[in-house]
Design goal:
The structure holds two protein chains of two kinds. Chain A is mostly helical. Chain A has one domain. Helix content of chain A is 78%, strand content 2%. Chain A has a two-stranded antiparallel ribbon. In chain A, helix 3 runs antiparallel to helix 11 (238-262). Chain A starts with a helix and ends in a 5-residue tail after the last helix. The relative contact order of chain A is 0.11. By secondary structure, chain B is mainly α. Among the domains of chain B are: 276-517, no CATH class; 601-670. Chain B has helices at 5-25, 30-34, 36-53, 78-101, 108-127, 131-149, 156-187, 192-195, 199-203, 208-222, 231-234, 240-249, 253-266, 270-292, 297-318, 320-352, 368-382, 388-402, 406-428, 448-463, 472-484, 500-517, 519-528, 537-559, 564-586, 600-618, 622-642, 646-668, 679-705, 713-724, 729-737, 739-761, 764-768, 770-779; strands at residues 58-65, 70-76. In chain B, strands 1-2 form a two-stranded antiparallel ribbon. The longest helix of chain B has 33 residues, at 320-352. The chains are: A mainly alpha, B mainly alpha. Chains A and B meet through helix 1, helix 5, helix 6, helix 7 and helix 8 of A and strand 1, helix 6, helix 7, helix 24 and helix 25 of B.
């Protein structure tokens, strides 16, 4: 039993439990939040180091041999995602210290945040299809309560749509898992992968794969299933939006990549063409949605959708090329894009919160003058914003470059053109925020607020750290891309994963 | 090189970061101080010029992101030396000038920072050997240009001009990225030095044409070629030092640089010749004509820059020794006189408060130094011997005369040069001669920081052609060699004998004077044609932007309608469509054949479930619907009983009972709502619901019939008692075999508990005051009723205001 695989679940669970025990002691809860997320980050880094040196690791819970019990398994992709969950968790926990209001803090905000992180990490680490469903439920319940916490009318309106559409995804997922179990008699993903490989005519299973595509597609907010996201992400407090923006949809993307590289690969010409088409439509509809918005967080929310398109673009390309090198490059591009995106997008939401603190609104027309008033925040916005738009030498450029190279290598010229044009439109909507909130003079009647020293520290520290990571991922893209490449190599080498999970000699 | 090229480039960026702080410390003199860096770099480059001139090439390479083919490889040859000298030399003058021009401006520090960042990027662009590295710097120049054009950020005009320049150049940049990658794919390398050696192979490659087109789009947008030229005049919203540096001397030459750089690999084909000369020729003529129609000094200069860029493009399109020689000479000559004239325009604006040529006159007496610099630069621009402008014009005429379709090209060149000569007189001579008129600010000679740049540039333009010690010949030869890919030797001389080119120069001068004299007439003529402007590319840009916003709004209103019912409908239809179509086309529908295990009570149960489901849907009151739903639940529990899982059935009974009771309790307090949907909508919903049901049934049938492998449940039966010590298998599975699932579900329950408690007790909105919430919902479209969130959950969230 490998402790490092269990820690990313145990640490948030214990932190949540202790926070619940300290229900009325907010000071303790606040400290626990920071310590717990820092520990999660530390555990994630330790796990990543282990996987980097030793390769894929798996552990059988309760010592029941696979495929009968539940397996926890970490390859590079999982480990990277756990580290990112720790990074975002820590950044948001610190940011919450200065941004979360006391009523929400007293009604379980901190334990809920931990439960959410536990669900996210569980989804990244499980090797069992039904267990994945359980972690989706943990995430869904925690996120729903976080979304509705506070009970503001806007929040509740968003939360209703959020929970209804996500429950539909859960229902589809559960039904699909049930049917899959009925057909294959197993739930272990590695075992499933092996058993489905032996199926002579994959057509029926491809149809079943469509149910998974839809279920995870809703979670990942792809076209035309993304409605819950723009309906809800602008309604809760910024810290909640930020953690959602960073992690939630990426769990859906993770599941899509996992399932369509490991389990449903027999009919790649069909499934991955479909994924490619969905990727294109997601990129375009998302960025057009952003262009139609005039509110800071709504613009950012639609951009999440658009960028989900880039992430699954790599997945689609990987299935449509005969060259293993290009397939690896495409998946590495996806993984790199996810890493870049999680950090940048969370950061932009955090910046939007500071802009709202200073200018009193999220509406662009009510904001202004930040360029003149706050050069520091200006730089901290420009870095993630330009990175999001794929400007060199920041992280987003290399993310886009790798996908474009893979696309050209796979001779999928249409999707490359779409990706490039969407990049320009992304730049367009980032300049909209820039021109309105930063360059434009502040409206005459807008309230001018300043931050206290403690607020400044707790709000700007996580933003600065994430911005520094964005710059670092760009300037030191090679080692980071090496991580992504290793992850991609493991994703394409199904056999090694299956053998590790089932405990067979390599 | 003594100082590495990477160090030289990075020093610009480092100083950019330090500049605002430095500016705060050294009040007033920061420009002079900061200029030391580019000056030092210029000297360092110049010290290597003789080596370059004698045919040496310096290169250095470090890995950066080898996984993606991006390396820090640089190469200094004649062409990059020429541009590096321009970038650093003009850069030093501009920093000094900016300090005087914007003395006391609160954001002067940022201007320095952006200018230095631009300088570093531009140096990187011309020194890069790796084409992706070149692209990195290319994009950085676009970003710095954006920040600099919008320097006066509180004016909407500056903001929209900045955006226009960014969208055009960054849009071209994306085409360039694709083009360069295709070129790299075709040539099997991302290093220029390798690619340039494979011209023949590249020309016959199927990717040649697409990569050529994409690269040309990149170059043309950056260098303001027709039909992308419109962003350059708009960019005159930038402070004048920026216009002089970026939008005349250096950045707009990036596209020209790229054409020159790649011409050994891409040039020499019909496609290259036709597209590049045509675009260049049209731009040259159009820019020259539009320059004359303006009265704002900066806009005249901007259009004449467009024209000059067109000339350069035309010459590079022609190719061949003569044209390349002409292009290199013209590149330098133009940077010198146009830079000087821009600085003069800024000085005039700064010292008199106006840059309208109709309001400036007789300023020689008040501003003699500026006037002298302006006069020399203008005469050079008009191509008057012995100035450098004359030499480069002679060369271009000779190149035009020997080109294919010589008559057309020569006629176009002469026409453009006549118009430009007139423009030169308007900008550089007209404000200083004649009767002095009162200006918004009383005219005074500028401080040294404001005349130094124009004087230096203008005098360089005067002596460069005449003074061999400057090494101009060698440098231009080296640059020409780089562009042609074969050794050439350029020798500038004033006197070529009584050639046709000389005659054309005379014609140009006389024509220029005539046009200058009759400029009023031309302006009136132009104003009559002004309405044509609404069909021009600037208008296309507006329309594209407008169309984009319309499309964005329309598609978002359509998709993100704000109604949960439509969202559900789309998701369900997509699911049924995708999974159903796949099942129908690729899968095998199965028909259960073995009915032997079926009992009459099974059938009865199924009928009961179906009828109760129908009852739930069709019930007229909520209570009836709940009751019917209860029947469904209990019947499903009975199914568990029949299949030997009494404990699961017990759980199901309990949950069903509890659910029904809770529903009744809650709904008892709610008013009945009338049926709002039309019968058509209900019919549509029924069809969708039925299709979803059919699809799921089909899948379940497959699951019951198809069994690829025996299930793992046998293992649980075998090991439940001996290893897990439990007789109740379901319990053992829940707490042992799959204990982690149970832990997860307990956690879900905990979260749900917090949620229920918080939803009941916590109402942040009320405490914070509902006024802000109401205002926000009003902003969100005005349809939301903020006071009734739960009772009417189907309302819009108002995504699209």
């Amino acid at each position: 039993m490998n402790l490092l695989l269990v820690l990313p679940l145990v640490i948030p669970l214990l932190t949540a439990t202790f926070s619940l025990l300290a229900w009325r002691r907010l000071a303790i809860q606040r400290k626990l939040a920071v310590v717990g997320t820092a520990a999660l980050l530390g555990g994630g880094v330790a796990l990543l180091t282990l996987v980097w040196t030793r390769g894929i690791v798996a552990t059988q819970l309760g010592a029941w041999p696979a495929p009968f019990g539940i397996t926890l398994v970490a390859d590079m992709f999982s480990a990277i995602m756990v580290v990112l969950a720790g990074v975002i968790g820590l950044a948001v926990a610190v940011y919450s210290l200065a941004s979360m209001d006391e009523p929400r803090e007293s009604f379980g905000y901190y334990p809920l945040l931990q439960i959410l992180l536990m669900g996210v990490c569980g989804a990244f680490l499980t090797g069992d299809f039904f267990n994945l469903y359980v972690w989706f439920e943990v995430m869904l319940m925690a996120s729903f309560v976080l979304l509705a916490l506070g009970g503001e009318p806007d929040q509740l309106r968003g939360a209703i749509k959020y929970v209804t559409l996500n429950l539909l995804a859960s229902a589809l997922f559960l039904a699909a898992v049930g049917i899959l179990y009925g057909v294959t008699g197993t739930l272990n993903m590695a075992d499933l992968a092996r058993k489905l490989s032996a199926v002579a005519e994959p057509g029926t299973m491809t149809a079943l794969a469509m149910l998974f595509l839809m279920a995870f597609g809703i979670k990942a907010a792809v076209f035309p299933l993304f409605f819950w996201l723009p309906a809800s992400y602008h309604t809760p407090p910024v810290a909640v939006s930020a953690v959602f923006a960073g992690l939630l949809t990426k769990v859906g993307v993770y599941a899509l990549i996992r399932v369509f590289t490991l389990i449903f690969v027999a009919d790649a010409g069909y499934t991955h063409t479909l994924i490619l088409v969905i990727a294109g439509l997601t990129m375009v509809t998302g960025v057009l949605g952003a262009a139609a918005q005039h509110e800071f967080r709504r613009i950012l929310s639609f951009h999440i959708i658009s960028q989900i398109g880039y992430m699954i673009l790599g997945l689609g390309l990987a299935g449509l090329t005969d060259s293993p090198a290009i397939s690896t490059l495409a998946l590495a591009g996806s993984v790199f894009y996810i890493m870049h995106h999680i950090i940048v997008k969370t950061n932009l939401f955090l910046v939007s919160g500071v802009a709202q603190r200073l200018g009193g609104s999220f509406e662009l027309k009510e904001l202004g003058g930040l360029y003149r008033a706050d050069p520091g925040l200006t730089v901290l916005f420009l870095i993630p914003a330009l990175s999001l738009a794929g400007m060199p030498p920041l992280s987003g450029f290399f993310a886009k470059l790798s996908l474009v190279q893979a696309g050209l290598g796979a001779e999928q010229y249409v999707i490359v053109a779409v990706a490039l044009v969407v990049g320009l439109l992304t730049l367009f909507s980032m300049t909209k925020i820039w021109a309105e909130a930063f360059w434009k003079a502040a409206p005459a009647d807008s309230p001018r607020q300043t931050l206290s020293a403690a607020e400044k520290r707790n709000l700007l520290l996580p933003i600065g750290m994430l911005a520094a990571m964005t710059v670092t991922i760009g300037l030191a893209a090679e080692p980071v891309f090496a991580l992504a490449t290793r992850a991609a190599e493991q994703l394409t080498d199904r056999d090694a994963y299956i053998r590790t999970v089932l405990g067979e000699p390599q | 090189m003594a100082v590495g090229m990477l160090t030289a480039i990075l020093s610009g960026f480092v100083l950019a970061i330090l500049a605002p702080g430095l500016n705060r410390m050294v009040r007033g003199g920061a420009g002079w101080l900061l200029a030391l860096l580019p000056l030092g770099l210029a000297i360092s480059f110049a010290s290597h010029a003789p080596l370059i001139a004698s045919g040496n090439v310096f290169s250095e390479s470090n890995p950066w992101v080898p996984a993606l083919g991006v390396d820090l490889s640089f190469r200094l040859d004649g062409l990059s030396m020429l541009l590096s000298l321009l970038i650093t030399g003009v850069g030093a003058l501009i920093l000094v000038y900016a300090g005087g021009y914007l003395a006391g401006h609160p954001q002067l520090g940022r201007l320095y920072a952006f200018l230095l960042m631009f300088m570093g990027s531009m140096l990187g662009l011309v020194l890069a050997d790796n084409i992706l590295l070149l692209f990195v710097f290319w994009e950085l120049t676009s970003i710095s240009s954006y920040l600099l054009i919008g320097f006066d950020h509180e004016r909407a005009a500056a903001r929209s001009a900045a955006l226009q320049a960014l969208l055009v150049t960054a849009g071209g940049g994306l085409a360039l990225m694709a083009g360069l990658l295709l070129l790299g794919q075709a040539g099997g390398s991302l290093e220029l030095s390798t690619l340039l050696l494979q011209a023949d192979y590249l020309h016959s490659h199927p990717l040649y044409l697409p990569s050529l087109v994409l690269i040309l789009i990149g170059a043309f947008t950056k260098s303001a070629q027709f039909p992308f030229h419109f962003w350059l005049p708009s960019a005159m919203e930038a402070p004048t030092p920026v216009s002089a540096y970026l939008h005349s001397a250096t950045m707009v030459k990036a596209g020209i640089y790229l054409l020159a750089r790649l011409s050994p690999a891409l040039g020499g084909t019909d496609a290259w010749f036709l597209s590049v000369t045509t675009v260049g020729g049209v731009t040259m003529l159009l820019g020259a004509w539009l320059a004359l129609t303006q009265s704002d000094l900066k806009r005249i200069l901007a259009y004449s820059t467009v024209s000059a860029l067109g000339t350069l493009t035309l010459l590079l399109g022609l190719g061949g020794t003569l044209a390349v020689q002409a292009a290199m000479a013209f590149l330098v000559g133009h940077a010198l006189y146009k830079g000087a004239l821009f600085l003069v325009a800024g000085t005039l604006d700064h010292q008199t408060g106006s840059r309208d040529v109709d309001r400036l006159s007789g300023l020689f007496r008040a501003m003699p130094i500026t006037a002298l610099a302006a006069g020399i630069a203008a005469l050079s621009m008009a191509g008057i011997a012995p100035l450098f402008g004359f030499l480069s014009k002679e060369l271009s005429y000779e190149a035009a005369l020997r080109a294919p379709a010589a008559a057309w090209i020569t006629a176009a060149a002469v026409t453009a040069n006549i118009l430009l000569a007139a423009a030169a007189f308007i900008v550089g001579i007209r404000p200083f001669v004649g009767k002095a008129v009162p200006t918004p600010k009383p005219a005074r000679e500028a401080p040294p920081s404001l005349w130094l740049g124009s004087v230096v540039l203008a005098s360089l333009g005067a002596v460069m052609g005449l003074w061999p010690a400057l090494g101009t010949d060698g440098l231009l030869s080296a640059a020409g060699t780089a562009v042609l890919g074969e050794t050439v030797s350029i020798h500038l001389s004033l006197w070529h004998g009584l050639t046709l080119a000389l005659a054309l120069s005379a014609v140009t001068l006389i024509g220029g004077v005539i046009v200058y004299v009759s400029r009023g007439l031309l302006r009136r003529l132009a104003s009559r044609w002004e309405s044509l402007g609404q069909f021009g590319p600037a208008r296309w840009y507006e329309l594209v932007l407008l169309g984009l916003n319309g499309l964005a709004g329309g598609q978002t209103r359509l998709l993100q309608s704000g109604y949960l019912r439509y969202y559900l409908m789309i998701v369900l239809v997509a699911t049924v469509g995708l999974a159903g179509a796949t099942l129908a086309t690729r899968g095998h529908l199965v028909k259960p054949t073995d009915w032997s295990g079926l009992h009459f009570y099974d059938v009865g149960l199924v009928v009961l479930i179906l009828m109760a489901t129908m009852g739930t849907v069709l019930a007229r009151t909520r209570l009836a619907a709940i009751a019917a739903l209860g029947v469904v639940g209990y019947s499903v529990a009975l199914v568990f009983v029949l299949f030997g899982a009494p404990d699961v059935a017990m759980t199901q009974f309990l949950i069903e009972t509890l659910t029904v009771i809770l529903f009744v309790l809650v709904f008892y307090h709610l008013p009945e709502t009338p049926a709002l949907s039309s019968s058509l909508a209900r019919g549509r919903d029924a069809v969708i619901a039925a299709t979803v049901g059919v699809l799921m049934t089909a899948f379940v049938l497959i699951a019951t019939v198809v069994q690829y492998q025996p299930p793992i449940s046998e293992y649980f039966a075998e090991h439940g008692l001996p290893d897990a010590h439990g007789r109740n298998l379901v319990n053992v599975i829940l707490v042992d075999f799959r204990g982690l699932d149970t832990l997860g579900e307990i956690t879900v329950l905990a979260a749900a508990g917090i949620g229920v408690y918080a939803l009941l007790k916590l109402r942040v909105g009320k405490q914070r005051g509902t006024a802000s919430a109401a205002r926000r919902s009003e902003l969100a479209g005005g349809v939301d009723d903020a006071s009734l969130p739960i009772a009417n959950p189907m309302r819009k969230e108002g995504d699209v205001p």
